[in-house]
Every structure is written in structure tokens, then in C-alpha cells.
Design a protein that fits this description.
Helix content is about 30%, strand content about 20%. The N and C termini lie far apart (about 40 Å). Bound molecules: flavin mononucleotide.
């Protein structure tokens, strides 16, 4: 029997598999037993009601999908009164993803979401900071560190920073989030993309650009996890294109302590349970007695870093 339990800071998870924010809801409890998951992660919420982006919001691409959902949110009251209780019917730790457009609004939302039934706050800092000309917090090290400091002061809950992959030097952002007080990093959100319908000549998404997710992004984000794991000492939760247990293992080998699973759930609603079983079988076959032994176990000792410095 492989020990699948992992610790992310002060939080213990029964296994390293959890959903990615925005790709999951408690209604999936009708499809599979949500108590099997390592954690539950909510869609990002905002304080106010938001209707989201113009349609179409989703487009298929080769080995992935583009979305421009735009964080529709029922607001804080609905979150606390309806969404948290719906998740609390299940046992795994509850991770509340939050989003806001200024450091002050982020901090006050973080404070108000830090209720007893929420176990972890995941700050989706990929959103624009309207006080910094709309630049996304996580695209700049200074904005990342500043907002994380505000959030750190606003809660005693474990605090995870979800980074954007739309940067040149992810390790620099990872260090800034750690310096600002993050207990863990989620690497990463969707990759900015665009596609055009060659019949209508129109962008496929109503918002023109959107986030690319699914298997197409996995090699890019595995590389980022590898770089972040060498830059920080806090745990990393990998996220991007995981569809199988071996995909999850790849992220762990690169340095992640746990992973989040998103797009595949739209095709296979119970995919995460298969991923847990496949990961356990893979650990067994590779003679890993505990999944924690897999983290960072990539055999790269005799490889030169020049190989990737050249393309960094
Ligand atoms: C439809 C959709 C909605 C999403 N909504 C959110 C969100 O609200 N907050 C967030 O941090 N990430 C959001 N994401 C990004 C995912 O959490 C995840 O980072 C991304 O999909 C990469 O993982 P995947 O390739 O396994 O899907 C969303 C992704 C999709 C596809």
C-alpha cells in the first residue's frame, strides 16, 4: 500500500489530487464520491456579483481549450451562505479561491472569507490590479509581493498564491510570493491565447483572447514547476493539463507536492478518482512507498542546466 498523504504547509491531504478552481462544483458529488479527493477548491469568488465575459466563452483547440469565462461570481454573501455549506457536506479540506482588483479589496475579501469552514485561502493573483494600470498582480514581482503581504496580514489561514504562467521569469514571481508570506504556490493559471474562425473570420471567443488549458500546456507548466521548485522552499501545487496518473507523477517529479486537475473533468467528470488510482499504481510499480518521495525525484543530476538556461 502506497502512502498517498501529503502536507502542504500546515494542511494534511489524504492524497495529492484536488480540482482546479473554476472547473469543479459540489454537484459533481452526484457523479463520484468527493471524499476521495485530497482537497476541494472553489471557483474564484469576488465580493460583488459579476456576470462574466461576453459569449462565446469557450473554444476547442488542438489538445486543449480556450476559455474567457471572466470570473462570474454570485458575490460574498452567496459564497458564505450557500457555496461553503454545499462543500462542507464533504470531508476534504476546503480551499476558497478569491479574486479582487486592488490590494485593499483583496485583503478585505481575504479577511471576510476566513471563516471556520474554510481551511485554506487560494489567492488568484492573475487578475488585473486596477490601481496599477490594470497590470495583473502576478505578472510583476513587486505587485505580487505587495499583495501577498496585504493578504498575509488579513488572515491566519494557510495562504496559497496562484501564479500566472504569462510571465518571462516565473521563478522571480515565485520568490516574490514567498517573500510576501505565501505558504504555498499554485503553478499555474491558464496561458493567454487566441484563435480565429477561418469561416467567419471572427475571433472564436467573445472576449477575443482567453486562457488556454488542457494537455497542450502541460510541458510548459511542468517546466515552470521545475524552475519554481528550485527558487523557493515552500510547497508547490502543480496545475496544467493533467489527465492521467502519469501526468500527475510528472508534476511531482518536477518538484510539486500536490496537483490540481481542471479541463479533463469536463470530458470525464470522475477523472480525478482514476488519476488517484493510477498515481498509486505508478508509485507501486516504481517502488515509491510514499508519494512524498516522488516530489523532486526527477533524475537530472547528470544533466547540465545550460540546456535550459539557453532557452530561458
Ligand atoms: C472554464 C474554466 C474556468 C476557470 N476558472 C478559474 C477561476 O475562477 N480561478 C482560477 O484561479 N482559475 C480558473 N481556471 C484555471 C484553472 O483553475 C487551471 O489553472 C487551468 O485550467 C489549468 O489546468 P487544466 O489544464 O488542468 O485545466 C479556469 C479554467 C477553466 C477551463
Amino acid at each position: 500500500m502506497v502512502d498517498l498523504s501529503v502536507r502542504i504547509g500546515d494542511v494534511t491531504l489524504a492524497n495529492p489530487i484536488m480540482p482546479a478552481s473554476g472547473t469543479f462544483s459540489p454537484e459533481l458529488g452526484a457523479v463520484f464520491d468527493l471524499n476521495r479527493l485530497g482537497a476541494l477548491v472553489t471557483k474564484s469568488i469576488t465580493r460583488e456579483y459579476r456576470s462574466g465575459n461576453p459569449t462565446p466563452r469557450v473554444a476547442e483547440t488542438a489538445s486543449g481549450m480556450l476559455n474567457s469565462i471572466g470570473i462570474p461570481s454570485k458575490g460574498l454573501d452567496a459564497f458564505l451562505n450557500d457555496i461553503v455549506p454545499a462543500y462542507r457536506r464533504y470531508g476534504p479540506p476546503l480551499v476558497a479561491s478569491i479574486s479582487a482588483h486592488s490590494p485593499e479589496a483583496f485583503a478585505s475579501l481575504c479577511h471576510d472569507v476566513s471563516v471556520r469552514d474554510v481551511d485554506v485561502i487560494e489567492a488568484n493573483i492573475s487578475c488585473p490590479n486596477l490601481e496599477a494600470d490594470g497590470r495583473a498582480f502576478a505578472m510583476h514581482a513587486d505587485l505580487t509581493e505587495a499583495v501577498m503581504r496585504r493578504l498575509r496580514a488579513a488572515t491566519t489561514k494557510p495562504l496559497w498564491a496562484k501564479l500566472t504562467p504569462n510571465v518571462g521569469d516565473i521563478a522571480e514571481i515565485a520568490r516574490a510570493a514567498e517573500a510576501g508570506g505565501a505558504d504555498a504556490l499554485v503553478v499555474a493559471n491558464a496561458i493567454l491565447g487566441m484563435s480565429i474562425d477561418t469561416d467567419s473570420l471572427r475571433p472564436t471567443l467573445g472576449a477575443i483572447m482567453g486562457g488556454l488549458t488542457g494537455p497542450a500546456i502541460k510541458p510548459i507548466v511542468v517546466r515552470m514547476v521545475y524552475q519554481c521548485a528550485r527558487a523557493v522552499s515552500i510547497p508547490i501545487v502543480g496545475c496544467g493539463g493533467i489527465a492521467t496518473g502519469k501526468d500527475a507523477a510528472e508534476y511531482l517529479l518536477a518538484g510539486a507536492a500536490a496537483v490540481q486537475v481542471g479541463t479533463v473533468t469536463f470530458r470525464h467528470p470522475s477523472a480525478m478518482t482514476a488519476i488517484i488510482d493510477e498515481l498509486a499504481a505508478w508509485c507501486d510499480a516504481k517502488r515509491f512507498a510514499a508519494v512524498t518521495d516522488v516530489t523532486g525525484a526527477v533524475r537530472d543530476d547528470d544533466y547540465s542546466t545550460d540546456r535550459y538556461e539557453a532557452v530561458r
